[in-house]
Amino acid sequence: MLTLPYSKYAKVRKMALYLVGENIDKSRGHYQAETGKLIQLMRGIYMDASDDIEAAVLQYAVRISKYLYPRTYLSAASAILLGPTIDGKLFISGPRSQRTRLRNLEIIQNKAPASPSIADAVVNDGISEFNVQVSTIRQRFLEAFRRQSEHSASVDHAMRILMAKRVIEEYGTIEKAADALWAIARQNGWHWEAEQAEQFLKQGIEAKTIKNSTMFNLIVAWHGNPIGTLSHDGFEWRWVPLEGNHLPLIRQTIPGRLPPFISALLPEGWLEKVLKNEDERTLLRTGKRYMSNIVIVDNEDEISKLPVDILETPLKKYSTEGVFTGEYKGPNRGKIEESFERNLAKIYKQSDTPRLSGVQIKAPMYLDKNGVLSPSTGQPFTHILKPAGTGGFEYLPVIEWQSMELGRRIGMIVPDIALIRMPDNMHPALMVERFDIRQSLDDERQIALEDFCSLLDLPAANKYDGTIEQAGRALRAISTEPSKDVLALLNRVLFAWLIADGDMHLKNMAILKITLPGKNTFQSVRMSPLYDAVSTVVFPELKNDLLALKMNGKANRIKRKDFMILATTMGLKASDVDDLINQTATNLRIAVDETALPKGIEYTNAAKAIAVEMLETCKKRLAEFE
Prior knowledge:
By secondary structure, this protein is α+β, with helices and mostly antiparallel strands. It has 21 helices and 25 strands. Strand 24 and strand 25 form a beta hairpin. The protein is globular and about 85 Å long.
């Protein structure tokens, strides 16, 4: 009898998996999910709400895959392991290439060859034994040499050696084993793969690695603990999790590419120009500290020397009615107009200054116990400073404050923010408190923020390319409260439309992952608080801004019926969405009438005018929405 490859899966207590059409009908599954007894992972798949969902998903990974994709077979590393890899990936081959993510499991399907060589195997996942189809040893050995293939990358050197020895043992000699491989390869046009496999049979088992002098290794730490190594060989990236680290935080989804979670941390726009770095290699080798409590260094000894980001002084202690009352000791402008950006850029020349993503000018800051706000170089990174822009965006901080305040007033979760009086007659800046760090020295939580670009395996350059429907599917598959979070996502889209926020792209939405030390799964994966929400159409260059991500194929003239259609696509109850729309619209009407710029700051007439225009825009959107 064959069992799952890792004892931690096999020893998990028996849990309930419900598959529509097999052991539960559609109506009963939907009813029990609505009453909270079951959790719907995706259409047709349910689990007991009281179970350890992450552990159960891995335990039943093969059964779930067979249910979702009956015309596929296990391939690459999963054909060897008869289950997911240690980092939660299940490799299959079938009619098309696609990937499905369910909590900490990724089912990665590539297109099967025209004439696959497959065999039957037996898996026991604790429910029962069942048959699955897998690549034969000869085919999976060839799969290990496919070019630019994530399936190939899943087969490590030790697996290749074991397969090579097994094939040689079966056919008696290296030459006969090679002939057997070529027989499959010719049927499928895998000539290059057969050549590489034959070469490995003849030389690879005893081959010694010749190191490329351009290769380097970086240590990635999370909350001060190393979790893996990131290496570059002069051609491509390779991510290797530390042995024993099973948290699905960093995933290399495309062989050779930088993992999307790491890519999402890298500077964009203004900061990228300031750093004058041409590629990812230089960016990662010249920075050390990033958002989401990530540190990337050359030497493990450096980790303990870097400041730990913990919020010891909350902003509310030094703010009154939306205005910062502490002491600002950040970059200033001086006598020359352009020198503020130069002074801000100077702090980034030091490698231990935290790096920030996003196009907008911003700086990492530290608020100490005495209320002094200063750059985070050599200090904890607790707050983000967003200074006024130029070229028509001088009042961006003011409008962002007002947008975020509207979100708070209608009941959305919003981090603490405040406007700051800036020196040298500069326009006010916005100060935002980080919500992805621990809140005190006693806080043991380990927190990570992952934006939707990373969640959908898209580079930052493609942040406008996705759709709300895609975001909803990805969120439902990974959230620990899927129905609530998908509803929150829909509310985020509704809010963006009603305040005329045309920049709600995939990097301006995220999930917040939380676990505790020693755990191998995230206890909480939820939609993050609201951030980077701003009414864009009030700025001269963005008068015709549309919704950044399409819904129902539309980016403009959005009505209530569009959200009801979206609700159906996202698997939400129409009544829940109808109630949400009514509540959000009602609360926003009240909030628009009650919201005003905070007192204690001198605003120009132009700033006051654009703030009024923003509120009038919201009223117009609300009136036209129905």
